[in-house]
Amino acid sequence: MSAAPSGRRKRPRSAASIFQGSKPSPHGRDSERRGSDSDSAYQTQRDLDDCKMLVQEFNTQVALYRELVISIGDVSVTCPSLHAELHKTRTQGCEMACQAHQKLAAISGPEDGEIHPEICRLYIQLQCCLEMYTTEMLKSICLLGSLQFHRKGIE
What we know:
- It comes from Eubucco bourcierii.
- The chain is an all-alpha fold.
- The protein has helices spanning 31-70, 80-108, 117-154; strands at residues 9-10, 114-115.
- It is 69% helix and 3% strand.
- A two-stranded antiparallel sheet has the order 1-2.
């Protein structure tokens, strides 16, 4: 996919029209219409801020999960409660990722057209978090399997 000269990806509607800093339309509008446009821009900015918060919370959840994975081999920590905590954290992380993706998809609009750089940045950030999360989940499977294999060898 090629980027437009402005650095944005091509979208059918102008992304500037959904943010507060947008230029007024060259066509005259009455004051009631202007009020609804600013309300729409405010709502979109709030939605964008919500998405930022969700992606940030997901990033924090990934870091928490990573810390739990690191503690898998520790004799004092490895127990059924750790497994339960891993499961709970993994489930919450998956829910956060889905929610963040759904909210981003809702504010980004149709797939074929220009995307605002801030929304694009959030998509990239979410994708990076998902890759780290997937890596940590695979690591936990390997470590837990290795630990069980090692324990069976000792018994």
